[in-house]
Amino acid sequence: MREVEVVCPRDCYDTCSLIFTLDDSGKLKNVRGDSQHPITQGFTCPRGVGDLKRVYENRILYPYVRIGPKPGRNFKRVEWKNALDLVAEKLKHVLNNYGPEAVLHLEYAGNMGLLTWYFPQRFWNAIGASKTDYSICSKSGHEALSLHYGSSYGIQPEKLSEMKLIVYWGFNAVVSAPHLWALSVKAKKRGGRIAVVDSRRSETARRANIWLCPKPGSDVALAFGIARYLIEHGYVDQDFIKEWTYGYEEYRRKVLEWTPERVEKVTGVSWSEVEELGDVYGRLKPSATMMGFGFQKSVYGAESVRAVSLIPALLGLHRGFYYSNSKGYMVDISYLTGEELYGKKVRIVSQVALAEYLEQGEFKFVYIYNMNPAVTLPDQKALRKGLSRRDVFVVVHDTHWIETTDYADVVLPAATYLEKKDIVIPYSHRYVKISKKAIEPLGESKSEIWVVKELASRLGIDGILIEDPWKALEKAFKDSFEDGSFGDLANGKMLKLKYKPLNCYQTFTGKIEFYSLKAEKLGLNPLPEQHPLPENAFILLNSSIFKYTHTQFREVYGPIPPFVLINLCDAERLGVKNGDKVVVYNEQGEVLLEARISEDVPRGVLWSPRQLEGLNGETQNVLVPPVRQKIGGGAVFNSTLVNIRKFDA
Ligand SMILES: Nc1nc2c(c(=O)[nH]1)N[C@H]1C(S)=C(S)[C@@H](COP(=O)(O)OP(=O)(O)OC[C@H]3O[C@@H](n4cnc5c(=O)[nH]c(N)nc54)[C@H](O)[C@@H]3O)O[C@H]1N2
Ligand SMILES: Nc1nc2c(c(=O)[nH]1)N[C@H]1C(S)=C(S)[C@@H](COP(=O)(O)OP(=O)(O)OC[C@H]3O[C@@H](n4cnc5c(=O)[nH]c(N)nc54)[C@H](O)[C@@H]3O)O[C@H]1N2
Ligand SMILES: [Mo]
Question: Which of 9, 1, 3 lies closest to 415 in space, CA to CA?
Fold first, then answer.
């Protein structure tokens, strides 16, 4: 028996420290959460446990080259050398004939390890390949916060247990951040209150003291309602407003335009509920306003984040919110990715609208790793059509067989996080530890760095990848730690990242700008704005469920369940009974699902697990348009307008 300390690198708020046990034959046997880790607190979620099995299931073990049509899995196994020769040859051909802009590398946070996600990008940056803008998840919210606060970092999660009030706003922490939720439960046990603002009764809403259910996309109006209550009841910290903020008067005037009646009408929340939340906000300090990525992924999601983030400023709290803390550290990520290597700016395209580019014939060579775009990106019909084009060469380097491999010309086997050493920077807390290699890579799977080094040498540009990755990490982490050196980290010590001060604002005025001068300069509305809500259609909300990280873990827990929640009134009107098959559709496509009648969704709102595949084989994302938010260009998954009808077999 042997124990190995590993860090979970999944795209998740919690970034857990895990201890895996191996049997004498070197096979993974058990896993537990590190009890010494202040956030992991000794427990794992179903995904941590699921890795014991997922590592051995459905793996890509060898390199393959396509011999059948796309989409499909008709591949021939080849030697690594042959696969790499072919990839390099195609790459050279495209570079010579179409230039580097015709090459696209497409990746996201399947594994957030710095040596998996970032360092390998040096190769693509060196040749000047096009890249995507990472707009699929949280970008619009970051941009929104930058307008009023300069940067988006906020409260450290370890402070949660000390809070008197925690408000989860569009954030289903019970599912999406179980360890942050556990800290909130500690606060609750000490007498703290938990409030939830969510457009459906989420798992988190069920466990809260207070739940407000605004119509999807009406959060600006609700935040203004709360602000009105705080202003009218003398809860605004006037000294703080004078010393630390800019543009309060303009903001106040706008807020007061939102009468209780108007707030009720737009949000569907009664004024007495607004008062209930306003009252705890006013009385209970300190409080934490936890803004999820979820409610930000809608047409005007950035506006919602702007409006909600300003509530704590009224109460005199320095950055009294949490959204994502990735901008609060001093680690030099662009050094790792080699941003400067090409010498010129490379082309950056929208991830959200990538389907359009591909369908219209852009790019001749696409290299995909750490992402499953053939399920997770919007406008799937166009995306899949684009990846099937005969004039585009697609390479996929993944750990597992996924939908995207069905569109690959070459499939390369990747080592999982348990099969390589790495470092992960969390986006909520700031505890960093080395993730050790637990097992040998299965089959012929290889790390991302190994692959790009091989490609670089075939292109005759090995020089750029000559720096030892661990030396590069040491440079990137220069002066980044509060309580130790990179050497300590390399020796297995857990270190704390230095963190920018909460009372520091990188705005034009150096203060919290209620009235954003940056927005004004950019031609955006300087104050948050409630836009009109759509009518005459259902809104399909879709969010993560406990056992899966996006499309991962289906090997362990089976398919993402293809059902849709519908309110009883809506179901009766449509003649839909519990368990009926229904078609959820719009002009983009149709997905066949099982209807479940539920009080957890209000009228006009549907809810499904996200990234599911319908009973007709269509992915949910056929329904999602490639629409970009005005601020930050983010995705709009939670503004998906659909209709629903009973399925006639
Ligand atoms: N188990 C698990 N955890 C994960 C992930 C995973 O796949 N699985 N993924 C990680 C990643 S990448 C992300 S982005 C995060 C997402 O984590 P969260 O931010 O928690 O995101 P969601 O669950 O998508 O949405 C949160 C809630 O917002 C609500 N909501 C939607 N629209 C609105 C609205 O307009 N107003 C209001 N007030 N509420 C609204 C939804 O009903 C939902 O309950 O989770 C991370 N954690
Ligand atoms: N309908 C709908 N769609 C959504 C969303 C939504 O709310 N609704 N949310 C969006 C959001 S917030 C996000 S973050 C995206 C996530 O979208 P993706 O990043 O595409 O999500 P995953 O399915 O986790 O895909 C990650 C892939 O990385 C692979 N992988 C894991 N570890 C490694 C490794 O070490 N090396 C390599 N090479 N590969 C590895 C996994 O096997 C998996 O295939 O989805 C977006 N799509
Ligand atoms: Mo995400």
Answer: 9
Q: Which residue has the higher pLDDT, 642 or 466?
A: 642
Indicate whether residue 298 lines ligand 1 (CB < 6 A). Answer: yes
Span 142-187, pLDDT tens digits: 999 999 999 999 999 999 999 999 999 999 999 999 999 999 999 9
Q: In this structure, what token pair is assigned to residue 104?
A: 């696209």
- Ligand that lies nearest to the alpha carbon of residue 413, given by its number in the listed order: 2
Examine the pLDDT at 648 and tell me if it is beyond 90: no
Q: List pLDDT tens digits, range 536-548.
A: 899 999 999 999 9
Amino acid at 457: S
Q: What is the dihedral of CA 57, 60, 62, 67, to 10 degrees?
A: 130
Q: Which of 139, 296, 398, 640 to mutate to test the pocket of ligand 2 (most atoms within 8 A of CB)?
A: 398
Quick one: which ligand is closest to 611's CA? Answer: 2
Find the ligand nearest to 415 CA.
2
Residue 79 Cα to ligand 3 midpoint, Å, equals 35
Strands (E), 438-537: 495-496, 512-513
Task: Identify the H or E element spanning 406.
Answer: none
Residue with token string 């936890």: 290
- Interacting residues of 279 by C-beta distance below 8 A, sequence separation 6+: 229, 233
DSSP code per residue over 586-648:
ETTEEEEEEEEE-TTS-TTEEEEETT-B-TTS-BGGGSS-----TTTT---GGGEEEEEEE--
Cα separation, 106 vs 444, whole angstroms: 23
Ligand 3 centroid – CA 53 distance (Å): 24
**Region for residue 372 given its phi and psi (left: phi exceeds 0; alpha: psi -120 to 50; beta: otherwise):** beta
> Which residue of 638, 639, 641 sits with most ligand 1 atoms within 8 Å of its CB, as the best mutation to test the pocket?
638
Q: What percent of the chain has pLDDT over 90?
A: 98
Per-residue pLDDT for 614 more than 80?
yes
Say what the pLDDT of residue 466 is: 78
**Could you write out the DSSP letters of every residue in 268-335?**
---HHHHHHHHHHHHHS-SEEEEE-SGGGSSTTHHHHHHHHHTHHHHTT-TT-EES--GGGS---HHH
pLDDT tens, 25-71? 999 999 999 999 999 999 999 999 999 999 999 999 999 999 999 99
Task: Residue 132: name the closest of 399, 381, 356, 451 by CA.
Answer: 356
Nearest C-alpha neighbor of 202 from the set 544, 612, 562: 544
Q: Determine the distance separating the centroid of ligand 2 and the alpha carbon of 269, expressed in angstroms.
A: 34
The three-class DSSP label of residue 167 is strand
Give the residue from 613, 513, 550 showing the smallest Cα distance to 249: 513
Contact call for residues 310 and 511 (beta carbons, < 8 A)? no
Residue 463: pLDDT above 80? no
pLDDT at 214: 98
- The b-or-e profile of 282-306 (16+ CB within 10 A means b, else e) is bebbbbbbbbbbbbbbbbbbbbbbb
Token couple for 280 = 């705890």
Q: DSSP per residue over 93-121, as a string?
A: HHHHHH-GGGEEEEE-SSS-BIIIIITTH
Phi first, then psi: give them for residue 151, nearest 5 degrees.
Answer: -135, 165
Q: What is the pTM of this model?
A: 0.98
Residues near ligand 2 with C-beta < 6 Å? 11, 108-111, 116, 136-137, 293, 297, 369-373, 376, 397-400, 402, 414, 416-417, 448, 542, 549-552, 610-611, 620-621, 624, 637
Give the whole-number percent of the chain exceeding pLDDT 70. 100
Residue nearest (by alpha carbon) to ligand 1 atom 45: 176
Q: Do residues 415 and 62 touch, judged by C-beta distance below 8 A?
A: no
- Residue 518's Cβ-side half-sphere holds a number of Cα atoms within 13 Å equal to 22
